[in-house]
Write a structure and sequence with these properties.
3 domains, Heat Shock Protein 90, single chain, five-stranded antiparallel sheet
Length: 646
């Protein structure tokens, strides 16, 4: 080198360019890892590896936040092959981090990146002993946000003590945003995929439901098409083998509480002859522990997802039967009751031979709905049949009643005509006999009186006494005849009804009788009486008979009393009464009081013919009322009668 030559040198600080290259490498690594993955769990190992390799860290972890409990659990980790940290990673997988605990918990609590120069000396790092054993010291963690909330925390560890580096903070902040955008995008895609799945499932269910509703509608139409429910059930069973089963059978309860099969269908018509022969050879067992018999007894549906040999053994009647049941190759079955109005009418059986087609609770619900409609069809057909039978029976009974009524009406007419003729004959006989009897009675009485008046000296006192007895009996006989004629006349006399002032009529009748009873002192207690509607003359006669009896039977009393009053009305009838304090009567003979010529006292005690109360009853009955009496020996009697209201 000559003296005139010189060397020019240029010194440049390339540290900033290395940092820039490092950030670019880290960003590229993250972009690469995320581009190669479709989900965070898939991206985590690559993401940690690429960042560690680009930045120079030896261990990386990704912790995810549980939003419900606000805790952290590890999603994944990565370490350089030369770093033996399996114990540290195993402890991380078993640990749940809470806010403020450990490095990642501090980041979750503060929401800011955090450094630890040496985790071995950090008192708030639970894994410090393990970190010391595996040789980890420096640590750094930063949050990853999604829509403003911390979704993850990414942590890195190194065997060297690390000093804080603002440049690295800026780099990881950018990386966190990049990962956060990826999580946001993948969640949106997952939600979209989930929605698509839900939509496909919903569409499939809707199509399936529409198919089932169409099937149920077709079955309902068939079941309602006629009253021949057995034919209808066979048609529905044929539909079922095309939609729900390989075999379909319908059994109906018998009158002897057993059951018989009305339909058996297979989707292969060629097997039907074999099935009919099988059914003829082996009759149903009503005591079987499974299948139709069990459902008939309990009224509850059964689903057999699998049909093991043990079930076939329980159902089989003998070894040959068991062998045939095995050869059927049934994979799954359902038995549902046919129930209506609380009664089990039968059962439907659905069986699948395809092992890939095993029945589910959803299939059972569908089968139960079909069975419910079938049961309604059976019940409606039976009800209609019973109604028709009942109607025919009613029509037959009606015709019989009509015939009997016609015969009865004819008999009544004939009997009425006979009775009318007999009554007329009796009336004629009564009048005739009365007139015929009055003549001899008058003669007996007259000649007896002549003997007593014209031959007084020729007849001694005993003869006079006997003649008086003859005259007395003749007079009594005449009274009986008069009473009988009056009783007969009362039954034939037409009613002349009008409003009757009962209080006024009772007072008049009492006054007349009291005037005729000379020397008899009777106290009358007359209450207010409502007006009645009836024949005034007949009612006067009714009151006269009752008051006359009251006068007669109170004669032995020193303080004779008669009370006329009214009870509470019932319906359109007024109830009146006549009470006395006379000799009374024994209630056991009350039924004889109103009979013709019935007497409870002898003639020697009280006069009378025994016709008076019979006349009272006839008058009351002709007015549509009723009459009854109450009494007690020695304490008087009360006679009640009812008449229409005015």
């Amino acid at each position: 080198m000559t003296p005139n030559e010189h060397i020019t040198g240029i010194f440049r600080d390339i540290a900033s360019r290395k940092d820039t290259d490092r950030r670019l490498a880290a960003g590229f690594a993250v972009t690469r890892a995320l581009a190669e993955s479709s989900s965070l769990s898939e991206a985590t190992p690559k993401l940690l590896q690429y960042i560690c390799e680009a930045v120079g860290w030896e261990v990386g972890e990704l912790w995810c936040v549980n939003a419900d409990s606000n805790t952290l659990h590890i999603e994944g980790s990565w370490h350089v092959p030369s770093c033996e940290v399996e114990e540290f990673e195993k402890a991380s997988r078993k640990t749940i981090m809470f806010p403020g605990i450990d490095l990642v918990g501090r980041v979750l609590s503060s929401g800011q990146p955090a450094w630890i120069d040496n985790v071995v000396d950090d008192k708030n790092f639970p894994r410090a002993p393990i970190a010391a054993r595996v040789g980890l010291h420096g640590a750094f963690a930063f949050p990853i946000r999604v829509v403003g909330n911390i979704a993850c925390v990414m942590a890195f560890y190194n065997r060297e003590v690390v000093e804080p580096d603002d440049e690295m903070l800026q780099m990881f902040d950018a990386l966190g945003k990049q990962v956060g955008d990826f999580i946001k995008r993948t969640k949106a895609e997952e939600e979209r995929d989930q929605l698509l799945i839900y939509e496909r499932v919903a569409r499939s269910e809707a199509e399936n439901n529409a198919d089932r509703l169409a099937f149920l509608g077709e079955a309902s139409t068939i079941l309602a098409s006629s009253l021949d429910y057995q034919t209808n059930l066979m048609t529905v069973a044929k539909l079922a083998v095309n939609r729900l089963a390989d075999w379909c059978a319908v059994d109906i309860v018998s009158e002897d509480q057993g059951f018989h099969r009305v339909a058996l269908v297979h989707n292969d018509p060629g097997r039907m002859e074999w099935a009919k022969d099988f059914q003829r050879r082996f009759t149903a067992n009503s005591s079987a522990p499974h299948g139709v018999a069990h459902v008939m007894r309990t009224g509850k549906a059964r689903i057999y997802t699998d049909i093991p040999d043990s079930m076939l053994i329980a159902l089989a009647q003998d070894s040959e039967h068991f062998k045939i049941l095995q050869e059927l190759g049934l994979a799954s079955a359902m038995v549902v009751p046919l129930a209506a109005r609380g009664r089990t009418l039968g059962a439907m059986t659905f069986a699948s031979e395809n092992p890939a087609r095993r029945y589910t609770p959803d299939d059972l619900n569908f089968a139960e709905e079909l069975a419910r409609r079938a049961a309604l069809g059976i019940d409606n057909a039976r009800l209609y049949s019973e109604a028709q039978n009942a109607l025919n029976e009613v029509q037959a009974k009606t015709e019989e009643i009509t015939r009997l009524n016609a015969e009865l009406e004819q008999r009544v007419k004939e009997r009425t005509a006979q009775l009318e003729m007999i009554v007329k004959e009796l009336e004629a006989f009564t009048c005739s006999i009365s007139d015929d009897m009055r003549g001899p009675l008058r003669a007996i009485d007259g000649f007896s009186r002549v003997l007593m008046e014209e031959y007084p000296n020729k007849i001694d006192s005993e003869g006079k006494r006997l003649l008086n007895i003859i005259r007395s009996n003749a007079a009594q006989m005449a009274q009986l005849i008069d009473g009988l004629l009056m009783f007969s006349h009362t039954g034939r006399q037409p009613l002349d009804q009008t409003d009757v002032n009962m209080e006024e009529l009772a007072q008049e009748t009492f006054d007349q009788l009291h005037a005729a009873e000379k020397g008899c002192q009777v106290l009358l207690e007359l209450h207010e009486l409502a007006a009645a509607f009836g024949d005034r003359q007949m009612i006067r006669q009714l009151l006269g008979r009752l008051l006359s009896n009251a006068f007669k039977f109170t004669r032995p009393r020193e303080n004779a009393q008669i009370e006329i009053g009214q009870k509470e009305s019932t319906g359109n009838q007024n109830i009146y009464y006549v009470r006395d304090n006379g000799v009374g009567f024994d209630m056991q003979y009350a039924g004889k009081l109103f009979g013709v010529f019935q007497r409870l006292h002898g003639v020697e005690e009280f006069e009378g013919t025994g016709v008076g109360l019979a006349l009272v009853q006839r008058i009351v009955l002709r007015h549509g009322g009723r009459v009854w009496a109450e009494g007690k020996v020695g304490e008087g009697a009360t006679f009640y009668f009812s008449l229409p209201k005015a």
